[in-house]
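User: For my dataset I need records formatted as: sequence, then structure tokens, nothing else. Please produce one.
Assistant:
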Amino acid sequence: MKAFRYRLYPTVAQAAALNLQLSEAARLYNAALQERRDAWSMARKNISCFDQIRQLKEIRTNGDLAIPSYRVAMEVLQRVDRAFDSFFRRVKAGETPGYPRFRAASRYDSLTFTAKKRWVVDGRVRLFGVGDVKLMLHRPIEGTIRTVTVKRHNGRWFVSFICDVPIVPLPATTRAIGIDVGLSSFAVLSDGVAVENPRCFERGHHVLRVAQRRLARRVRGSRGRQKAVALLQRVHELIDNQRRDFHHKTARALVNRFDLLAVEDLNVKGLARSRLARAVNDAGWGQFLRLLSEKAANAARVVVAVDPSGTSQRCSGCGDQVPKKLSVRWHECSRCGLFLGRDHNAARNILSAGMALVGGTWPDVRASVPTEATQDSRSTDAAQGETK
């Protein structure tokens, strides 16, 4: 499944029709949620999604719902059902449950339409109850369209086509790589290449700070505050887009070059609650690893997640344990004399662990690491460290 996202340019009347359907969808969502809560609190009775869908015909016949498409209204009820499924799953897993909450009309921002034969005609997308809406078709839609989702985001409109896309294998390179993500460098590869950390949040922090201060000075409920909120949202969106663009390009470059990619099986949520939370969230490791896995699956590449524990404390040359604090950024082994960057050493260990996991099932792949580490590399790596 692959999503193709495009910008929509509805007319004033079309935007009003979309906003009306969103407000009605929020009303239906809240009514379905209230019905389930009342049924359980009063009679200890569970109401299923099918029970609520069966009521849709009567609701629409009486004119109590201004959503023209039956399928769109049904999908709203399915969202309620998914919210309760997620709630019960978290309860069973011992996590913080988070009971489903009501949705304000201003925060219900998407409608999902089911597929039909022709969606896009002459640069316009046909939406039931809205009409033919102009869109910026900046790239062709691939595969078979399954669902179409229209979303309102920061005052603008977007449409996403969810498609079944066939896998297109890339030519084999017979190369493997280990990837160690970090903060000083975004990633260090097992062949010694370091990917620079763009630090999108740090670069845009001064603009974000000005927008936040402007918002803090506005009176709640005023028109000026609404404009300040919109400006702040745009700044956050810009930073997110920059980070996502970097992740897409980096993941694509790695997938194009290597058949096997070994990465760390990180607990990103746990790291995001540590003292390094700001830097970890700015790097966005979770999004990058997800995109890397998706692009690799679409290109018939293999991504292997390995246990990250001990990868920086173990010598990649001889396997001996070399304990070091986090502040020590260079690895030096007294047994084999290996001297290289801490992250570079960890990336080599990650690659070795990934190769061990695939074992003999992986044919003719050569590891992308230096053939040997000699004492001559000590002066080269040290000189690179001084320049950094």
